[in-house]
Amino acid sequence: MLVMAYHRSYGLPTITTRGNNVYGPNQFPEKLIPKFIILAMKGKRLPIHGDGTNVRSYLYSADVAEAFDVILHKGVIGHVYNIGTKKERRVLDVAEDICKLFGQNSQEVIQLVQDRPFNDQRYFLDDQKLKKLGWQERTPWEEGLTMTLDWYTKNPDWWGDITGALDPHPRISHILPSHDEGCLLQLIKGNKKGSGSDLKFLIYGRTGWIGGLLGKICEERGIEYEYGLGRLQDRGSLMHDMIRVKPTHVFNAAGVTGRPNVDWCESHKVETIRTNIAGTLTLAEICRQADILVMNFATGCIFEYDDKHPLGSGIGFKEEDKPNFTGSFYSKTKAMVEELLKEYENVCTLRVRMPISSDLTNPRNFITKITRYNKVVNIPNSMTVLDELLPISVEMAKRNCRGIWNFTNPGVVSHNEILEMYRDYIDPKFKWQNFDLQEQAKVIVAPRSNNELNTTKLKKEFPELLSIKDSVKKYVFVPNKKT
């Protein structure tokens, strides 16, 4: 009635369908026909509400889908179309037909149980209006029931644990968890693993810098992808994404880094925890159940130079080293979640540092940031040139890489060296001033991490990987050089 009101009052283009009982493959076992089939498979009794004389009309799912298609293309705006069949069956008849297919004695198997409230005796739809559009029921009852039975016998574990749904009077609280696990099983069975055209990426972080670049890379390489619609901390919305997309790999480029910088996290700790820890772990757990590899973009800003890794020594922190920097709340959450993710064999953690790209208009680009500062500290650091390394992350997904990886270019580059290249290639008049860490501490809320990461593992896997200085020149400054 609400839909009709909007059509009549505001001209909203609507068509309404009214349908009777539908059956077929993939139907959740709380419904009559799949419930009876599964119970018969298990050798259990078939519970019938009341005396079983209630009459229903059953249509095979493919016929109903075809009806929707006909109505969509031939139906008249504002009209209502009934989707039904003249062939009616008692619930007892349905149970007996299923018993016959299993070779069971219906007298011994069927069990009458307490009727459910408001159990209609009959509802019959006149489908002549729909038939005038050219639709006809195509699947005979015997054929549809046989195809449905065949599907359930070949997919006995499709829905996972459905014990609650098979009760004579199932409660919704019993059904929904089973539904979730069943959807994951459906996802697993539908997945394709490998490389090439059968890849499909689900990317989280659509509005973020890395997430946006990943989408462009997929388009350039002809890789099918979709962005996640759910929030990381919302398990239900993530599961809907998995079921909708059926990905072979998940790329997690979502997270809270703070705007305009990590100082934001110091005053928004709950929000930071919610996404960086709870959300990331939720995504990893769902993908683990579905046997999907997660490419998780993390941070290398969880280390700082120390006695074993002195500044200028060339000794970088390795993948197995324990984080030693918790000066900022952002780094604290990222170090915590990285430690927990070690237990997930389906996660590939990529430690990104001070990301750089050829887009010098992006305010998150490390080069763009420091060119806008009044003063900068001059410390050598490991950094990540996204133009070179993001395509490598796609290749790592294809190669099924897992565990922790220092995801930076080999070597270090100082802030002054970056700014010198900026002056030489981009702006000959550019000038800057330096200040030390003590002076910097007076103008920032949270301390910053400075370190060198050991990239031996990544370089061994990808020997062609350029050093940070060479990569910055090739991918950033040469393409942007002012003539």
What count of domains describes the coordinates?
2
Share of β-strand residues:
5-15%
Might you state the CATH topology name of the largest domain?
Rossmann fold
Could you give me the name of the CATH homologous superfamily of the largest domain?
NAD(P)-binding Rossmann-like Domain
| CATH domain class name of the largest domain | Alpha Beta
CATH architecture of the largest domain: 3-Layer(aba) Sandwich
Shape: elongated
| Strand order in space, largest sheet | 9-8-10-11-12-14
Q: Give unreliable regions as ranges.
A: 172-180, 192-196
InterPro entries: Epimerase_deHydtase, NAD(P)-bd_dom, NAD(P)-bd_dom_sf
Family: Belongs to the NAD(P)-dependent epimerase/dehydratase family.
Domain NAD(P)-binding: 2-147
Keywords: Isomerase, Oxidoreductase
What keywords describe this structure?
single chain, 483 residues, alpha/beta, Rossmann fold, 2 domains, six-stranded parallel β-sheet, three-stranded mixed β-sheet, 19 helices, 15 strands, 42% helix
